[in-house]
Design brief:
The complex is a heterodimer of chains A (200) and B (172).
Chain A lengths: L4 H4 L4 H22 L4 H5 L8 H22 L13 E2 H18 L3 H9 L3 H20 L4 H4 L3 E3 L4 H5 L3 H26 L2 H4 L1
Antiparallel strand pairs in A: 1-2
Helix pairs in contact in A: 2-6, 4-10, 6-7
Chain B lengths: L10 H19 L6 H15 L1 H5 L5 H4 L9 H19 L15 H22 L3 H10 L3 H18 L3 H4 L1
Helix pairs in contact in B: 2-5, 7-8
The chains are: A mainly alpha (200), B mainly alpha (172).
């Protein structure tokens, strides 16, 4: 198992941070190219006028997921060394719902706001400042809601295939089907609600 | 250099590009991509300047900056510096590097900035409960098929779509 390379090659944290910086450049570049630096474009997703956000996001998820499933199947990647998000279900739902409100009110999510900042969007600078305040408030509030924050953990590293007891390949297949259905739906909605001029 | 404003990249191509860099993050470093983590770490760094004791006594912030811990000593921080540079390069190349405030046709700049601040605050607050934002949880956790990430992803889109109608004057 040669992946992750940082583990296999026992890279120093300096080299690992250089990799982080370079990968970040690619991430930021494609976010901006996709139109994520513009809050107006992002928000139109929620009115079915321009479904860029969900198209880019699900294409990215499916691309990376297929890579991981293939590397895993060929024994190239040690999944134990890969970051997998912990599953705290109720705080995850609560946080997600609050983030959704923040998304439609503010027009950005933190990653896209950073790209907006880089291209001098004033609303993005303000959004990130707001984000910093919100996170500071959360850091002050979490100690008082610690039991809730730590609640409903169903697994530190639990994945859908493990949860449903099906194979990674089959789960991947369902995710791809779901994404394709969503892409079809998005294209139909854009044709219905989208302004063709705006969409080019 | 192209200074005329260019079209955005086809979303599916942009998605494949993003996905390959996300895969690279896993393959090279075993990491997902993040957005909000670096902002949180900067906040803790700021609090540390004022009061180390306050960080040490906070059960949440202590994980980031307790004692001699440097909150900025993290893969995600360097990744986000890269995001900034990548966004800048793309913006310059495509003629979108321009100081402006994007807002819907029916609200003014001032109202847009207030809402952007408010929305950003809510997003940041929620991200700390969900242990990451759209990048760190929905995108990265989506690709590793983490159960909680898919739950959070649907929660984000659910509330954004549910509230969209009431905020239509802000955006349309």
């Amino acid at each position: 198992m040669i992946f992750p390379l940082s583990h296999h090659l026992e890279l120093s944290s300096e080299s690992n941070y250089l990799i982080a910086f370079l990968i970040g450049i690619g991430f930021g570049f494609f976010l901006e190219q996709g139109g994520f630096g513009n809050a107006n474009k992002l928000a139109k997703t929620f009115y079915f006028r321009d479904m860029t956000v969900v198209k880019v996001m699900f294409t990215a998820i499916v691309t990376a997921m297929i890579g991981l499933i293939i590397f895993r199947a060929f024994g190239l990647i040690n999944m134990d060394q890969i970051w997998i998000n912990p599953s705290y279900i109720v705080p995850g739902i609560f946080g997600g719902l609050v983030m959704g409100v923040g998304f439609i009110v503010g027009g950005y999510c933190p990653g896209t706001a950073l790209v907006g900042m880089a291209t001098l969007k004033v609303d993005a600078w303000i959004n990130v400042l707001g984000g910093a305040l919100g996170m500071y408030i959360a850091a002050e509030v979490i100690p008082y809601t610690y039991t809730f924050w730590k609640s409903t953990l169903i697994g530190e590293r639990i994945t859908l295939p493990e949860y449903f007891n099906i194979s990674y390949g089959l789960t991947g297949f369902f995710v791809i089907l779901f994404a394709l259905a969503f892409f079809g739906f998005s294209e139909v909605m854009e044709r219905k609600f989208g302004n063709r001029e705006e969409l080019r | 250099m192209l200074l005329t404003k260019m079209r955005y990249l086809n979303p599916y191509i942009a998605g494949v590009g993003l996905g390959l860099f996300l895969l690279a993050a896993f393959v090279f470093s075993g990491q997902g991509l993040g957005g909000s983590g670096a902002i949180m770490r900067t906040v803790v760094g700021g609090v540390k300047i004022f009061s180390q004791q306050h960080v040490d006594n906070n059960i949440y912030m202590v994980n980031y900056g307790g004692g001699k811990l440097n909150p900025l000593d993290s893969w995600l921080v360097f990744e986000v510096v890269g995001v900034f540079v990548g966004g800048l390069l793309s913006g310059i190349l495509s003629g979108r590097f321009k100081a402006e405030t994007n807002h819907g046709p029916r609200i003014n700049r001032r109202k847009r900035l207030i809402l952007s601040f408010l929305g950003g605050s809510l997003f940041g607050f929620g991200a700390r409960y969900a242990r990451g934002c759209t990048s760190g949880v929905a995108l990265s956790g989506g690709a590793t098929l983490a159960v909680g990430s898919w739950v959070t992803m649907f929660a984000i889109f659910f509330s954004a779509y549910a509230l969209a109608y009431f905020l239509r004057k802000v955006w349309l």
